[in-house]
Amino acid sequence: MKKVLFALVAIALVFVSCKKTTEDKKTDPKADGLTIKLEVVGTPTTTGAVIRSTPSDTAIYYAQFCVPTAQMSQATAQALAKQIYDAIAEDGFESYAFHGVEECDWEGKLDPNTKYTPVAIQIDEKSTVYETLFQGAPFTTASVPQSAMTIGITYDGVDAVTFTPSGTDTYIYAIMDMAFLDSIEIPHTTPIEEVAEYVLGELAKYPKDYETGPVTENIGNWAFGTVTTGDEVWAAAAPATEGVVNGTMTTATFTIGTPVAENAARQIPMNARRPQIRIARRK
Q: How far is CA 119 from CA 25, 75, 145, in A?
């Protein structure tokens, strides 16, 4: 379970470093009377919504985005064109290009209790940057109830880390070594709380891996490198439900060979991560 998910975390971090492709001429689709209607189909969930796009010209290609409404001032057609053409350069035109009426299912890609605006821009295989931004009516994802449960973390000084929740809510956990930080290209000087918050947020997207009750995990099941006496290792855990973290994060830093008692762990309220602009991708 664990290393596969960590590989997905690494991909997510590397994705934002793609190179920009060369821009072509700028034109205005509205000059040709083009429209793209965007509307929510059904009721948004905590982490998703179905957005239907209906272009007036079924021959053109377009890309669909969900933009946090609070960030709409940054969401120009030019800025979104950069994102989509960067993504196309990495994954291919057909991964993101839509034409005709399309219904995009954003389940698992949006943040709870967040207002989004669905938008679209025209694209083509020449990386042309079109100037028109098509917008739909904003919508808000459903809220997730917060858990009051805390999670204790202990280390036996040898090879076992135990996570002990104070209640029966579901939760996720992680154990991280230096080699893991290398695998996701995170500097070793990054505060472990920042790394743990990101990792737990990614793991929460996989409800099949949620836990209930105490769990004892062997460090070797998680270590990306060879962990020996004197090495520093970190552990983190937080309540999770419906694809998101919904409670206080616990972190613990320990040295291999030195036991750690539960009261040495830190309880840290999870900061709400800033919602990101999302690009629809063809499945």
A: 21, 9, 29
Integer Cα distance of 95 and 17 in angstroms: 18
Per-residue pLDDT of 16-36, as tens digits, reads: 222 233 334 456 666 578 999
Which residues 6+ apart lie within 8 Å of 47 measured at CB? 107, 108, 109, 110, 111, 112, 141, 242, 243, 244
Could you tell me how many helices (H) and strands (E) the chain has, helices first? 4, 18
In this model, does residue 11 exceed pLDDT 90?
A: no
Q: How far is CA 101 from the centre of its chain?
A: 27
**CA-CA-CA-CA dihedral for 220, 222, 225, 229, to nearest 10:** -50
Do the Cβ atoms of 122 and 140 come closer than 8 Å?
Answer: no
pTM of the predicted model, to two decimals?
Answer: 0.64
How many residues does the structure list for the chain?
283
Q: What is the DSSP letter of 141?
A: P
**pLDDT surpasses 60 at 229:** yes
Pairwise CA distance, residues 155 & 177, whole Å? 14
Report, as an integer, the average pLDDT of 204-227.
91
